[in-house]
Amino acid sequence: MRYRKDIELKNGTKCVLRNPTAEDAQAILEHMKITSDETEFMARYSDEIITPPAEEAAYLKTLEADPRSIMIAAQIDGKIIANAGITCRPYHDRYRHRGEFGISIQKRYWGQGIGTAILKAILGEAKKAGLEQVELDVVDSNERAFHLYRKFGFQVYGVLPRAFLYRDGHASDAYLMVCRLGQK
Ligand SMILES: CC(C)(COP(=O)(O)OP(=O)(O)OC[C@H]1O[C@@H](n2cnc3c(N)ncnc32)[C@H](O)[C@@H]1OP(=O)(O)O)[C@@H](O)C(=O)NCCC(=O)NCCS
Fold first, then answer.
1. Cα dist from 77 to 14, 55, 127, 147, whole Å
2. Distance, CA 98 to ligand 1 centroid (Å)?
3. How far is the CA of 122 from the centre of ligand 1 (A)?
4. Whose CA is nearest to atom 5 of ligand 1?
5. Domains of the chain, earliest start first
6. Could you tell me which residues come within 8 angstroms of residue 59 by beta carbon, excluding any fewer than 6 positions away?
7. Is the pTM of this model over 0.90?
8. Ligand 1 site-directed mutation target among 143, 147, 177, most atoms within 8 Å of CB
9. 28 φ, ψ to 5°?
10. What is the pLDDT of residues 7-42, one digit of tens each?
């Protein structure tokens, strides 16, 4: 999928929303490491992000060529500071209507409307790609993300106890959420 939109943030900063390309592989991997270190809300520790840049580049190239693959990054002053996407299982008929959403924004850019802009763009592309529902899980203490998802019509359909078990031994539950597209 290809996507590009210029937006202005709440503080007036210019920001570009666009699909990342193979040339962004290194920047995307760095972004993933930064955001994985900044909160307990991401699925991985930064030292678990070990994808070789060439492999990431090949993956991004495949995504760009596939109209049903949805990934949108945010760039400020030429630097990728956010990324979000939906992963699907398009080759299994019984799963074709579903997608799993994920998003990460570097902390210093929170609260400027980037999450809202990316989610709006992603859900629009998901509809175009024929998806009927978008799913996610979110750590129960992640109030900012929970608010964002509720704003776009995601509803809680369950709670997964001990969804994340951290290296220091504490655990977090996660809300399981779904958004039925076109039925908000
Ligand atoms: C969650 C995340 C995507 C939000 O992005 P963002 O750019 O800050 O989002 P926005 O600025 O568009 O909107 C944030 C909303 O949360 C609200 N908010 C902020 N702090 C909040 C809090 N503690 N409780 C409830 N709502 C809160 C804001 O008021 C705003 O709501 P509004 O649009 O109705 O005014 C971003 O914080 C992030 O990437 N976090 C780290 C990674 C992460 O948690 N990913 C999600 C994993 S499921």
1. 8, 26, 30, 28
2. 24
3. 16
4. 115
5. 4-134 (3.40.630.30)
6. 25, 51
7. yes
8. 147
9. -65, -40
10. 999 999 999 999 999 999 999 999 999 999 999 999
